[in-house]
Design a protein that fits this description.
The protein is mainly beta. The protein has 2 helices and 11 strands; from the N terminus they run αββββββαβββββ. The chain starts with a helix and ends with a strand.
Length: about 180
C-alpha cells in the first residue's frame, strides 16, 4: 500500500511539474498605453497587473493577464483621477480588466495571442503579436497592439466623440517572466 501511495504522489508531482508555467515579475515589467488628446500623445501605464503563462511558450499555451484598472496612471494627477470615473474606466464598478488567450507559434520566438479582452463589462476578441525572448534568468514577452476605446465604452457622454480624444489607444508591454516553482 505505501508503494502505491508513493507512486500516486509521484505521478501528481510529475503532472504538476509538466504543467508548470511562468509568472510575471511585476517590478521588472511594463504595461504602457498612449491615448491622444487634440492630436498630442498622452502616455500612461498600468502599475498593478499580473501575467501568467501555462506550460512552455508554445502553440496552445494559455496566457492570462489581469489588470487592476485603478492602477492606470498618467503624468498628470488630474488625468489619473479622472480616468477612474464612470465615463472612463469606472474602477468602482469594474476594478479589473482581463485578457485570456491561447498562443499560436509563428516561429523564431514570435507568437500571436488569440483571446478575449474583458474590460468595463464588455468582452471582445483581440489578437496580440508577441515576441518571446528567453534568457538564462527568465524570459520576456514583448509586444504592441491597438484597441478602440469605444469598443469598451471608455470615454462616454461628452467624451464619446473622437474629435478631441482619439478612438485608438496603443498598448505596449515588456513583461519579465520567471518559471513557476
Amino acid at each position: 500500500m505505501p508503494t502505491r501511495a508513493c507512486l500516486a504522489v509521484s505521478g501528481l508531482l510529475a503532472a504538476g511539474a509538466a504543467s508548470a508555467g511562468w509568472h510575471g515579475e511585476h517590478t521588472a515589467s511594463r504595461l504602457d498605453f498612449v491615448a491622444r488628446f487634440m492630436g498630442d500623445a498622452v502616455p500612461g501605464r498600468f502599475t498593478d497587473f499580473d501575467v501568467a503563462l501555462s506550460g512552455e511558450a508554445a502553440a496552445g499555451a494559455q496566457l492570462v493577464v489581469s489588470v487592476r484598472t485603478a492602477g492606470a496612471v498618467f503624468d498628470s494627477a488630474e488625468v489619473t483621477a479622472a480616468v477612474r470615473d464612470a465615463a472612463w474606466f469606472d474602477v468602482a464598478q469594474f476594478p479589473e480588466a482581463r485578457y485570456e488567450a491561447a498562443l499560436e507559434a509563428r516561429g523564431g520566438g514570435r507568437f500571436f495571442a488569440h483571446g478575449t479582452l474583458a474590460l468595463k463589462g464588455v468582452q471582445r476578441a483581440i489578437e496580440v503579436p508577441i515576441i518571446w525572448r528567453e534568457q538564462a534568468d527568465g524570459a520576456h514577452l514583448v509586444g504592441e497592439f491597438a484597441v478602440e476605446r469605444g469598443w469598451f465604452g471608455i470615454g462616454t457622454g461628452s467624451f464619446e466623440a473622437t474629435d478631441e480624444v482619439a478612438a485608438e489607444v496603443r498598448v505596449s508591454f515588456d513583461v519579465r517572466l520567471r518559471r513557476d516553482e
